[in-house]
Amino acid sequence: MTASAIREVTQADLPDIVRLATLCGFPARTTEGWRWVLFGNPQQGAIAPGWVHEGPDSITGFLGNFVNRYRCGPAQHLVATGHTVVTDRSVKGQQAGIRLIRHGVAQPHVDAFVTLNNNALSAPLLPRVGARPWLGHQGREWVEWILRPSRVLRALLPAAGPAERFDCHPGFSFAVEARRGGITFATLESVCDDELEAITPEGVPVRQIDVASLRYRLADPDRRAGSSYVVARMGGRALALASILLTKPSPERLDHAEIADWVASPCAGGVKAQKALLRHLAVIARRAGASRLRLHFPSIVPAGVLQAAGPHLRRRHRHDPCHALVRNDVLASWQPGPGDADYFFAFRIPPALFAARSGAHDRVG
């Protein structure tokens, strides 16, 4: 029998990744969607986008490896985010999952290997290979605003019809552009790279953002709509931006709008813009029909900003979704936000927004 091996993922492996994700119940994504996730990231560079565990007869495991680039002063740092650990559970004795995670943790040429959105099944595995629980309660926490209380109450009742409940309509969209209180809200097309760089704070590790990398995040070929960036401007200057997307955790659960990215200037004007931006996100989510609005890593926003969108709930995971192996002490002061995680591609797409394509039979979940 030929021994199993781990190798870098290739585009030829995409059908096997779809198969494994289907077996493990991961959110729906086609081969083209996985191609976008793994091979389209403009910040990936020469770092492997993931690895497969190859058994004697088939691919039996996969681990994704998404790279974000950070700067602190003149220095640049590479952070690899592990995602989508999937294995064929019918194949016994290979320990594909733990081997893949160990391989990801040990990879060279990155300053840190992190997970910011791992599930309860993978959480116990990561400390076994040297990735420690990270961020404490801040990593477990999210906040949410209830936008449609009647729908929340109905969700507590047994389903009377099909399993898919509370789905959005096919014409769903977020109406982003507006002007309120001297602050203009615009789309991503309104900003340039210099403005984006000026938004990010100095003296701490921050994710490098530019128009190309943010456009990439909006270019999901599996999503027809329901994902937008919003830029808050005051006095002609961009001071904050966020992305918002509609997701639906499972057929029987509520849809919700997720704030999947948040970057802002820490100046006084930036804090004012953040309050206005959060209020605006709640307004456009409510008008679009979303049941809830959620923000993970709420400690990323200054004190007082969360209240701007009204009363909210603080929720916590029962497991540690954040683990890290950090090799560069500079990153010890890094405070991740929602845009540092894999939310923009990891969340389930509501069926009404799943793009119709010839490869529909490749959908998973």
TrEMBL record:
InterPro entries to which the protein is assigned, alphabetical: Acyl_CoA_acyltransferase
Name used for this protein in its record: N-acetyltransferase domain-containing protein
Gene source species: Glycocaulis albus
Lineage start: Bacteria, Pseudomonadati, Pseudomonadota, Alphaproteobacteria, Maricaulales
